[in-house]
Amino acid sequence: MDEPNPGAERPEPETAPAPDEPPFDGPDAPAEEPAGPRPLGVAVTPTGHPEVDGRLARLGDADHLAVGGHLAVYEDVHRGLRTTLASLDQQPGPRPGAQNDNRS
């Protein structure tokens, strides 16, 4: 059997913790502070329809809220977009197929 050589170098660990990570994960590890809201930085391309663009701009409000507040914003935007879309069916004027409808 080979006995350990006191002068021999120890092999380095395969991976070392990153400098910003705590060195251990045990119960005595320092607690991390929760990160605050951070903008996602998602760009919204204007549609040219002011009502739709206003609704989409409202999505930016979620950037300043904790995750728990996102759902209310998303539901509000979704509801508004559905209302806008439904209102397109309510617009007065000729129906697109009405010109060629020559039924008697």
TrEMBL record:
<feature type="compositionally biased region" description="Pro residues">
    <location>
        <begin position="14"/>
        <end position="25"/>
    </location>
</feature>
<feature type="region of interest" description="Disordered">
    <location>
        <begin position="85"/>
        <end position="104"/>
    </location>
</feature>
<feature type="region of interest" description="Disordered">
    <location>
        <begin position="1"/>
        <end position="55"/>
    </location>
</feature>
<protein>
    <submittedName>
        <fullName>Uncharacterized protein</fullName>
    </submittedName>
</protein>
<feature type="compositionally biased region" description="Low complexity">
    <location>
        <begin position="26"/>
        <end position="41"/>
    </location>
</feature>
